[in-house]
Specification:
The protein is α/β, with parallel strands linked by helices. The protein contains three helices and three strands.
Amino acid sequence: MDLGKIGVWTWMDHLSANEAAEFAQRIEGMGYSALWIPEAVGRDPFSLIGYLAARTEKLILATGIANIYARDPMGTKAIWKTL
């Protein structure tokens, strides 16, 4: 997997689901290779990543970090299997 040289890091909780998908599609159309979504407050980043992955072609989606205090091992494995 090649993350490329330039990606976008942004908080997307203020966007509706459709707006988030449109934003990700614009980022991909501009030639960015990766979109990084923080895990701090708000939406579950892995659910959002799954949603955006279904609406983009080749954009790499990532959190950077999955907070160990917010994720138990069984829940994390279930997210991994789902994605």
